[in-house]
Write a structure and sequence with these properties.
Radius of gyration: 30 Å
Strand order of the largest sheet: 1-2-4-5-3
Helix content: 40-55%
Oligomer: single chain
């Protein structure tokens, strides 16, 4: 942007404001400034914006040019020149008037354009950000067969538009928050008025306002800061990259949060059983959806119990194992120099290392590292006599079961539980396994997510909700909402309408 200066205005009000902003931000940020005589030379104006954050062509065509070519007529009165410019000369819709120069610094860092006017104490802010964002792609972590093929991106406005397209209703409400003293992350609270409980919404507002940290990277960081028990291994919230999941959750009375620079949405309150629900459950026949959900639940149980049960049987509780099976296991352990607990822990850790390495490596390379590494290491360890064949089978079965769990956060939870039960079973046998299992169930039974019991609707019992826990009943039977999550009045309204 060309810069025009006049020595007669070197100490003017506009020049003083420009100097103040430059001193606050420095030169390295890429600040673009211009001092112009606008309205046919009748008034001096100062324009400021950060080059990397703003659309320069838009500012030149829609902001500066109209001000330079405009004229102030006598019938315009003696009102504030910034208000006249906002209402009569500048075409962009998103404009506002502020009074404080310090606030203008914040607006510049948001990608807005700041305009000072000679003879006016008001400052005009024009929103003209240059938005760099990736296109909407397929979900990477929550793939479906019959569901929608689009996922959230890092731009919050794009994410909001995807939710609105699925819920084009005036009762869909939004509330904006700015989080992080340094990051100033823009976030939005979403709910459907009349469905979401007012006390849950108020609790969400309170927890968000109480966030006191310097940086909020995204929804995952915010989730830890506002959840009930930050030290719990069980997720009391749901992170999803799918806008259709958010829309369905909102329609069930849940509350969602979207953050700028984050391609995930946060959904609360959440129960343990929500971890096993996917959009495919509702996109195919009830029997097929129910079968897949039961398989996911069984996969979670297998992933945390197979290894410790095997260890307790071969270490302490030999009489439980059938004689023929016990003989095969014993023969497979001939020549193995390590105890069973060392074998099991070592192979479990190695599998997790391969899994993590495969996740961090790009694309198909990560897949081959995980697959070939596990096969080669496993075969070599068995051939060398370091590991028994039965350990390889048990660990592989447990690891494969985790891939059937639909929630990535719950996968990490299953791994933590698996390690804990392995240690207890290796020390105390079947007694340690059952005690560890009871402790986990007890912890889940007392856990809450924003006032909603974690095992609800199983504990406490609400039979109406059982239609969408272990099985997925036909959609016609799923009209009523859960009373501890959604307003009861919405159920009555739905029944009356029916």
């Amino acid at each position: 942007m060309g810069q025009r200066k006049d020595t007669n205005y070197s100490n003017s009000y506009v020049e003083q404001n420009l100097s103040f902003i430059k001193n606050q931000l420095g030169d390295g940020i890429g600040l673009s400034e211009g001092n112009f005589k606008a309205f046919g030379g009748q008034r001096e104006i100062g324009v400021l914006y950060v080059t990397s954050l703003c659309d320069k062509e838009f500012i030149s065509d829609q902001v500066i040019t109209p001000l330079l070519q405009g004229t102030l007529k006598n019938n315009m009165g003696n009102g504030d020149i910034s208000i006249l410019a906002q209402t009569m000369f500048i075409s962009p819709i998103n404009t506002k008037i502020i009074k404080q120069k310090e606030e203008a610094v914040t607006e510049l860092l948001k990608g807005n354009t700041v305009i000072f006017f000679e003879g006016s104490s008001s400052i005009l802010i024009v929103q003209a950000p240059k938005i760099e964002k990736r296109s909407i792609n397929k979900p990477e972590n929550e793939t479906t067969i019959f569901g929608a093929k689009e996922a959230f991106v890092e731009d919050i406005e794009t994410n909001i538009s995807m939710v609105i397209r699925r819920l084009p209703i005036p009762t869909l409400k939004f509330e904006t928050f700015t989080l992080g003293k340094l990051s100033c992350t823009n976030s939005k609270l979403l709910w459907i008025k009349g469905l979401a409980k007012d006390d849950i919404i108020e609790e969400m507002r309170r927890r968000i306002r109480d966030v006191d940290t310097e940086i909020v990277d995204g929804t995952s960081t915010l989730a830890e800061l506002i959840q009930d028990k930050p030290t719990s291994i069980f997720p009391t919230y749901r992170l999803t990259e799918r806008p259709d999941v958010v829309s369905r959750a909102l329609s069930d009375g849940h509350v969602a949060i979207l953050c700028n620079n984050s391609p995930f949405a946060l959904i609360v309150p959440m129960t343990f059983w929500d971890n096993f629900k996917t959009m495919d459950d509702y996109s195919q026949l009830p029997f097929a959806g129910s079968l897949l959900r039961i398989i996911r639940i069984l996969a979670f149980i297998v992933s945390i119990t197979v290894s410790p049960l095997y260890l307790s049987f071969v270490t302490y509780n030999h009489t439980i194992v059938p004689p023929s099976l016990g003989l095969n296991i014993s023969q497979g352990r001939n020549g193995v120099p390590f105890p069973s607990i060392v074998e099991l822990l070592a192979m479990t850790i190695i599998i997790d290392i391969f899994r993590e390495a495969g996740t961090r490596m790009p694309g198909i390379v990560g897949y081959f590292i995980g697959t070939l590494g596990a096969v080669i290491i496993g075969q070599s360890a068995v051939a060398a006599g370091y590991i028994s064949v039965s350990i390889i089978i048990v660990v592989s079965f447990s690891a494969i079961a985790t891939f059937a769990i639909s929630s990535t956060i719950l996968v990490n939870t299953s791994r933590i539980i698996n390690y804990s039960l392995i240690l207890l079973s290796g020390i105390l046998g079947i007694f340690g396994f059952f005690n560890g299992s009871f402790i986990i169930l007890w912890r889940m039974s007392i856990l809450e997510s924003f006032g909603v019991p974690y095992l609800y609707p199983i504990i406490p019992v609400e039979f109406q909700g059982w239609k969408d826990v272990f099985i997925r009943a036909p959609l016609k039977m799923l009209k009523n909402k859960l009373t501890l999550i959604a307003n009861v009045s919405s159920n009555k309204a739905g029944n009356t309408k029916k």
